[in-house]
Amino acid sequence: MNAWLTMENLGLTEGGTRIIDDVSLALGAQRTVVLGPNGAGKSTLLRLIHGLLHPSGGTLRWARPVSQAMVFQRPVMLRTTALANVVYGLKLRGLAADECERRARQALAHVGLERLAKRPARLLSGGEQQRVALARVWALEPELLILDEPTASLDPASSREVERIINEIAASGTRILMTTHNLGQARRIAEEIVFIDRGRIAEQTPVAEFFKLPRTAAAQDFLQEEMP
Amino acid sequence: MTEFNDAFLTAWQLLALSDARLSAIAWLSLRVSLAATLVACVVGMPIGALLAVGRFPGRRVLIVLFNGLMGLPPVVVGLLVYLLLSRAGPLGQFGLLFSPEAMIVAQAVLVTPIVAALTRQVIADEWSEYREQLRSLGASRSRAAATLLWDGRFSLSTAALAGFGRAIAEVGAVMIVGGNIDGVTRVMTTTIALETSKGDLPLALALGFILIAVVLAINAVAYALRGWAERHWG
Ligand SMILES: Nc1ncnc2c1ncn2[C@@H]1O[C@H](COP(=O)(O)OP(=O)(O)O)[C@@H](O)[C@H]1O
Ligand SMILES: [Mg+2]
């Protein structure tokens, strides 16, 4: 497997604590899920990769430049319509207005929200807002999509819908790198699991193997606690 | 006591008859202060937004400065603008002194720091919520500032309102640069000050009522607008 991203001795220290601690990791799978206990550093690692944080040490090396987009745990919607929220991301890429609108409508249709295109985005339900956020990144057609617990605050039905959309985006050829608190979801989406514990990579294992028998004690404990 | 009652009665009569002199003064007040507030918003809101999201040397100093300038004494602003606009001053050639335009300039100077400082607070709150999302989508800082100004438009009405309230209520700056010339630069506050000192209480009182009514009405409209916006846009 050719790595599209290689991290070497990556570290992030904030106020004396090492949040990301000497991480060396090569990502090559098309769908990678990062698992780990609360506060392990999953979100921080994704932010480093996305470029929202700067490492205090080590390197991030991309095999080639990759267009990327990110979906956050809580969708951030501008005070305008759902459609205009999707158009906004496209406009920032410098696309012509009619092309923005065309792509935005198409993306909203992909997430099943074309009917709500003209509704104020902030008055949509949490699940609908997250789908608008997914449409917003889908319209950008990124090569890599990073998602940080995209279903953490959603009800089961909305979670399933979001999962279906992630799978479709993956099927269109976009690489997926995500975290989730939902082990069933990790199992269904991932090819490869990266397990992180206290800022360090504990293991990087193909998904079937990970859920059968993880290599490290930390991951075994984690699975036991999360799946009684 | 009768003098007191008479003053009230005459004041109401002036209002009821919409006395020509009275309405001319009230109109001038409104025009000057609205124009000054508009200028202050056009200048102060972008400054406030850039102070909130920008990264440049001197940013902290500017924030402290603008917060401090919120409390500028109107007479000092009046004096400074007077020096700028007077014949010998750097802007003397335009002959603006003792005109409504000079009053607009003075009130705009007075109010811009208020609008900028309040805008910075509103936008800083929004920025902490939106920062990662906007950066992730590739928005530059100036683009983010513009986005947040539009997104915060309803909250920002409060900043504009505070600026207008300050402008229409101040006496010192317009008195100095306007000169309180009858029929030309006489506004509500300067007239109240003058007529009270001359003992013409009815006119002063009538203008006082209008002043209070204007401030209350504008606050009520802004309150209703924000309520509507909250329900409509979340
Ligand atoms: N800006 C920060 N300053 C200090 N500590 C932080 C900061 N951001 C995160 N942390 C800490 O770093 C650790 C990892 O956080 P995070 O990446 O959010 O974990 P996870 O997403 O795995 O739950 C936590 O202990 C958190 O409290
Ligand atoms: Mg997290």
Characterise this structure.
The complex is a heterodimer of chains A (228) and B (234). Chain A has 228 residues and is α/β, with parallel strands linked by helices. Helix content of chain A is 38%, strand content 26%. Chain A has a domain of 128 residues: P-loop containing nucleotide triphosphate hydrolases (Rossmann fold), CATH 3.40.50.300. In chain A, helix 2 crosses helix 3, helix 2 packs parallel to helix 4 and helix 3 crosses helix 4. The radius of gyration of chain A is 18 Å and the shape is globular. Chain A starts with a strand and ends with a helix. The mean pLDDT of chain A is 97. Chain B has 10 helices and no strands. The model of chain B has no long low-confidence stretch (mean pLDDT 95). At the A-B interface, helix 2 of A face helix 5, helix 6 and helix 10 of B. The site of adenosine-5'-diphosphate has 11 residues of chain A, from helix 1.
What is this structure, in a nutshell?
The complex is a heterodimer of chains A (228) and B (234). In chain A, 38% of the residues lie in helices and 26% in strands.
Uncertain parts of chain B: none
- The span between the termini of chain B is 53 Å
Helix content of chain A: 25-40%
The gyration radius over C-alpha positions of chain B equals 21 Å
CATH topology category name of the domain at 1-67 and 150-156 and 175-228 in chain A: Rossmann fold
- How many extended strands of chain B? 0
**Which series of helices and strands of chain A comes N to C?**
EEEHEEHHHEHEHEEHH
